[in-house]
Amino acid sequence: KGDKQQGTEPKACDQMYESLAPLHSNYYKHKYPRPRDTSFSGLSVKEYKLILSTDTLEGFQEMDRSKLQEKFAPMRPEEKHKAWVRVLSRPCT
């Protein structure tokens, strides 16, 4: 019939598989390695995991909005990193 859904034909499934297989195997991650595992903030993956944890996000919700804006205000990279380290080093309450 002409009313087949997209992706149900074997040829379409094969094409989709061929497109997704390199992503699943991290082909491009290994082909184009990053020189450093950092981002614009200069934080490490470990620091990002801590920031994005449920406890930390709940703490951000409780913070005053103006304090959050100060944390994300433009500054030199080394100052931004120091500010994040100060925030992360405080014990969770």
Automatic annotation (TrEMBL):
Q: Listed GO cellular component terms? A: mitochondrial nucleoid
Q: Which InterPro entries match?
A: UQCC2
Where primarily located? Answer: mitochondrion
Instruction: Output the superkingdom of the source species.
Output: Eukaryota
User: Which GO BP terms apply?
Assistant: mitochondrial respiratory chain complex III assembly
Cited Pfam families? UQCC2_CBP6
Subcellular localization, per the record? Mitochondrion matrix, Mitochondrion nucleoid
Keywords recorded for this protein, A-Z: Mitochondrion, Mitochondrion nucleoid, Transit peptide
PANTHER family this protein is in? UBIQUINOL-CYTOCHROME-C REDUCTASE COMPLEX ASSEMBLY FACTOR 2 (PTHR34260:SF1)
- What protein name does the entry list? Mitochondrial nucleoid factor 1
Species assigned in the record = Peromyscus maniculatus bairdii
